[in-house]
Fold this protein.
Amino acid sequence: MTDCVFCRIVDGTIGAKIVCQDEHCLAFEDINPQAPVHVLVIPKRHIRSLNEFETSDTELLGRLLQTCRTVAHLKELTSAGYRVVANTGSQAGQTVFHFHFHVLGKRMFRWPPG
Ligand code: 5GP
Ligand code: ZN
């Protein structure tokens, strides 16, 4: 998907500060951070949103959440706490239609979210 900003980060056409990666998943700093720690975790394969995951992608979903855990450890978020969010669809605030988890930390969060 050449018109997808996150696919371009995966292929290196657009730069990003990479936190960690493996064969299937990539974690990088959000360009407009909403907390002192704000990292995005994406599949390297283009998947539009949570709605488009297939049953055969169950292992990939697990890998993505494990990558969120790795980010939490690397950024030292585990003791104080952190938030993992996947905005799904425009009403939920999704603006980039390549699936991503947000990993946010190092500040207080309110509930319910706005
Ligand atoms: P969404 O609104 O879809 O849940 O989140 C998209 C996120 O992607 C936003 O937090 C936004 O700041 C981030 N973002 C958009 N374009 C870029 C980019 O080119 N590079 C990086 N690192 N983050 C981006
Ligand atoms: Zn994409």
Summary: The two ends are 31 Å apart (CA to CA). The chain has one domain: 5-105. The pocket of zinc ion (ligand 2) is lined by residues 1, 4, 6-7, 46, 98 (CB under 6 Å).
